[in-house]
Amino acid sequence: MPRPSGPGPASPAPCKLAATGACLVPGLCRNPKTAVASRANGGRPPSPAGGVTRRIVHRGQSLYRAGDAFANLYQLYAGSMKLRITNSAGMEQIASFPIAGALLGLDGIDTGHYACDAIALEDSLTCILPFADLVARSRADAPSALQLSRAIAQETNHYRRLIMVLAGMNSEERVAHFLQDISERMAAGGYSSREFVLKMTRADIARYLGMKIETVSRAFTRLHLARILDVRGRHLRIRDPDALRRLGAGR
């Protein structure tokens, strides 16, 4: 039976990211040190010699917040998060829902301060990647530079696709595109692409897709009635992947 949810923050060895080729620092996490790092020190507890430090972030806690000084990128080893932006009027927008393998913190490179809040949707585990170390490693090693560039490009393409979704799709197409994206990312991480638990609330999905909560709920209901999905609360099973893919592509 497929695992219904994404990767949880269980034992960090062996490294699943390295096994799938997603790790940005392969070879440095043979003996990772796991720590509960505070934001007061930039989320950077002392790294063990020859390795990396992993940070536990419990559900509802922040990895970093908007305005915090930028020092690190983070690769999500296990669990899931949401990136939240709050404007001057107090309105919230969800920028993305990273899952295992995602690179976080890119929003801090430009200004030297993080631009959003990274909040854990479940108990999660991140690899702390000091940005200065990544830059030095990239200068000395061309494959590392290429891998970092690809990771940054993937995040950039994510936001480009989101803009296209918000600009030209109706409510059902937006929700279908969102679910198809999660399905593909789950598959890339070695998990079931057809059955999983959504860790985010319907309200968060609405803020991400630029919709009202009621509209999101109706879209889920219609997809369920069309026998494209089985929806039971946050537990979701994709019954017709082809139909979901077509709808998510706006066809």
TrEMBL record:
It comes from the Bacteria. InterPro entries: cNMP-bd_dom, cNMP-bd_dom_sf, HTH_CRP, RmlC-like_jellyroll, WH-like_DNA-bd_sf, WH_DNA-bd_sf. One of its GO terms (molecular function) is DNA binding. Residues 169-242 form the HTH crp-type domain. CDD domains: CAP_ED (cd00038), HTH_CRP (cd00092). The keyword Transcription regulation applies. Keywords: DNA-binding, Transcription, Transcription regulation. GO terms for biological process: regulation of DNA-templated transcription. The keyword Transcription regulation applies. This is CRP/FNR family transcriptional regulator. It comes from Castellaniella defragrans. The lineage of its organism: Bacteria, Pseudomonadati, Pseudomonadota, Betaproteobacteria, Burkholderiales.
